[in-house]
Amino acid sequence: MTSPAPTHSDRYPAGSAAFPHRDLVGIAGLAPHEILFLLDEAEQWVELNRAAHKRADRLAGLTIINAFFENSTRTLLSFEIAGKRLGADVVNMHAAQSSVKKGETLIDTAMTLNAMRADAIVIRHASSGAVRLIADKVDCPVLNAGDGQHEHPTQGLLDALTIRHAFDLGKGAFFNGLTVTICGDILHSRVARSNIHCLTTLGADVRVCAPPALMPAEVEQLKVTPFHDFDAALQGADVVMMLRLQQERMQGQFIASPREYRHLYGLTPGRLAKAKPGAFVMHPGPMNRGVEIDSNVADLPGRSLITGQVEMGVAVRMACLEVLTRSQRGVEGWS
Ligand code: NCD
Q1: Model confidence pLDDT, tens digit, residues 38-47
Q2: In angstroms, rounded to a whole number, what is the distance separating the alpha carbons of residues 241 and 5?
Q3: Distance 88 CA to ligand 1 centre (A)
Q4: Which atom of ligand 1 is found nearest the CA of 284?
Q5: Atom of ligand 1 at shortest distance to CA of 75?
């Protein structure tokens, strides 16, 4: 089903050339070997996180600021846990309690974080492009924890790592031969965009399914097959990834009613039966149970990877923080 797993040594360039980027703003533009490098680096952290003693002091002495201008449960917590498990000092800035509420501009907030000499800044913001803007103003690595409907790169990576584990693919493996159906509010979803870039770069066949109003016009430019008929999109799918309706990004009416939406696009046990036998179910959370996904699918033992995604999230964020701070830490072989 998949190409043979190549070894590390013949896959990655040496030292900092393995991931020659200061920031992680998106998956778009990353080379296949750069994505695989981050996933492979994450494997050691999956192991550490499963051990009784979950601490590696690689980032001791470094300060990481999590600047979240939008709500978050999983992403904020897992970035915090990731930084702490690596021994860094982690500080969380919640926009609701910050000077943003007093009218401070994004650039002024960025300059303030920069003056505090953070060693890495993790940012979530409601505006697409805000993270790039901040990255261009500060002196340390910036990690995008979700910007508007643009990208959520660590989610794309953690989803790829979850798929790699579910299919027992191992390090270095591409995803050729796997069909992944992403269904829901594709238009407003940064998770969909990062997943599309990540999965297609790794060689998977990606299908996107949404009602016409929630399908982005740019879908033609992405290497995916668009569907409006969920049953057709499910045929032959190895993985079904469900997305929430992002009401907070909707101005106007995009769906007739939640009831009709569930009828056409909700993942019920009957619908799941239309995918490949044994197909896996994913969802980045937060879930709206009974709308895009039924509880008896979301909690299906052996088939639902949803808690596995959360687990992989910590490992992937540890890998990203560790790799992006290597040049600052003067790690051997990195310039
Ligand atoms: C997603 C997000 O914030 O983009 N959640 C997450 O990070 N796990 C998806 C969503 O909010 O629907």
Answers
A1: 999 999 999 9
A2: 25
A3: 25
A4: 8
A5: 7
Reported in sequence order, the residue ranges of the chain that DSSP labels E, i.e. its strands, are: 63-68, 89-94, 120-125, 142-147, 179-183, 205-209, 225-227, 239-242, 280-282
Query: Maximum CA pair distance of the chain?
Result: 57
Tokens for 129, please give them: 């492009």
Residues marked active site are found at 74-75, 102, 124, 152
Ligand 1: atom nearest CA of 124 is 3
- Which domains are present in the chain? 15-152+311-329 (3.40.50.1370), 155-304 (3.40.50.1370)
Mean pLDDT over the full length of the chain: 93
Nearest CA to ligand 1 atom 11: 286
DSSP state of 49: H
* Cβ density class 287-312: b for 16+ within 10 Å, e for less: bbeebbbbeebbebeebbbbebbbbb
- State the distance from the centre of ligand 1 to the C-alpha of 285, rounded, in angstroms: 6
User: Residue 63: what are its φ and ψ, rounded to 5°?
Assistant: -115, 125
How does pLDDT run across 82-101, given as a tens digit for each residue? 999 999 999 999 876 667 66
Residues with CB under 6 A from ligand 1: 74-75, 146, 152, 155, 190-191, 244, 246, 284-285
